Amino acid sequence: MGTEGWCLLLCLALSGAADTERQWRAVDVVLDCFLVEEGKHRGGFASDKNMVKALLAGAVLDDGSLEGFTDFQVSTLVKDNPPVTFDASVSPVQIPHAEALLHADCSEKEVTCEISRYFLQARQEAAIETAAWFIANLQVSGGGPSVSILMKTLGDAENRALMHPTMNLPLGPQGTVLTTVEFQVTTHTPSLSLQRGSSASLHCGFSVAPGLDLARVEWRLQHKGSGQLVYSWTPGQGQAKREGATLEPEQLLMAGDASLKLPSLTLKDEGAYICQITTSLYQAQQIIQLHVQGADGIRLSSVNLGFSQSTTGLANEALPPTLICNIAGYYPVDVTVTWTREELGGAPVPVSDASFSSLRQSPEGTYSISSSLTAEPGSAGATYTCQVAHISLDEPIVTSAWAAPPEQRIVAFGVLFASSLFLLALLYLGLQRWQATSSKVCQDSEALWVDTLLPPNKKKE
């Protein structure tokens, strides 16, 4: 074992309830895999990987609608270097998403398949000395399902004549390593992208063989090098560490649905969620990547009317206005801003001389940036449009502003200047009137105060 031409065959003989109206038959699905030879240390998953090319063939049940598939024959493999054949019975535990695995090639998708040894705790393995365990991790590309299946070997351990020469495993009558699938954990949403403020449902399903008890369900979040517990469940008791986090009702959980629900997503909820299922004997997990997106709003404003001043302080020349497109409250950081200019009756023309402010980040983690542009409206004026594209938007957001020609800006400035002088005059007259009124009130008050304090014989004087 370990040569380049070595192959692995895993026969997944899927069984299910017979359909009374259809004749079911087994159809093989063949996947390219890697077998991982690892260090045999105790207590979990090993390391020091040494990958060897392998072949994973699984049988799915067909109701007769599938055409063009032929059975996979072990005899078709190279006889000089025969594969190790894992014959896995799935009667205790069904393997989910078999159809997605079967149709992966037809859907132009790839299946990543990795098989490795699984080691029990020393105290557990001591009770089952004759068995060995393997775990297969399958992932369909393009956001397809992810499945982890755990298999236990079977066979006649007393008949040492039927042992695999390199793996030291008992073989069946046909020279295959007989195994049974005892545990599987799966998710059909390995990656999600959701809007900030929305709710998330992170799928995690599992099934266990009879005789195994569900001991614990744990959800953890890993993000930017730190980890935290999100939800923990043991029979009869659940504890949420993230406000509002819930699991499915306990009856659904016991039936194999450990999905996590998160309301009102914030940027702090982004990261890799680990769904870990622990039984009385085994432990397996799935990882779901959650991406949180958001774009709160875009504002376009003219911040400079653009007038120079003469030595007398009056405007004598109109300068081009400066337009600013503010993009606030978006996440993640990548955003695309484009400008166009359109004269009356003309077609939009891209503008490439816009500049950008420094990137700003709010305490909540969202980003803001501004793009500024000096408008050149020409003699007839022009419409400037700012377009913003972001991953959180179904389509770009567009907003526009009108840049008036110089003559209109001068007239507008004259009206504004005259209005300002008028308002200043009103304020000045009002102030003068208020001061005069205040002075008269003060004089009358002073006379009254003096008249009150003088003796009667002095008042006539």
From TrEMBL:
UniProt protein name: Tapasin-related protein
Domain of life: Eukaryota
Subunit and interaction comment: Interacts with peptide-free HLA-A*02-B2M complexes or those loaded with low affinity peptides, likely facilitating peptide exchange onto higher affinity peptides. Interacts with MR1 in a ligand-independent way; this interaction may stabilize MR1 pool and facilitate ligand loading and dissociation.
Sorted UniProt keywords: Cell membrane, Disulfide bond, Endoplasmic reticulum, Golgi apparatus, Immunity, Immunoglobulin domain, Membrane, Microsome, Repeat, Signal, Transmembrane, Transmembrane helix
Residue ranges of every copy of the Ig-like domain listed in the record: 173-289, 316-399
Endpoints of the signal sequence: 1-18
Residue stretches spanning the membrane: 410-431
UniProt GO cellular component terms: endoplasmic reticulum membrane; Golgi membrane; plasma membrane
Biological process terms in GO annotation: immune system process
Locations listed in the record: Cell membrane; Endoplasmic reticulum membrane; Golgi apparatus membrane; Microsome membrane
Topology class, membrane: Single-pass type I membrane protein
One Pfam family from the record: C1-set
InterPro entries: Ig-like_dom, Ig-like_dom_sf, Ig-like_fold, Ig/MHC_CS, Ig_C1-set, Ig_sub, Ig_V-set, Immune_Resp_Modulators
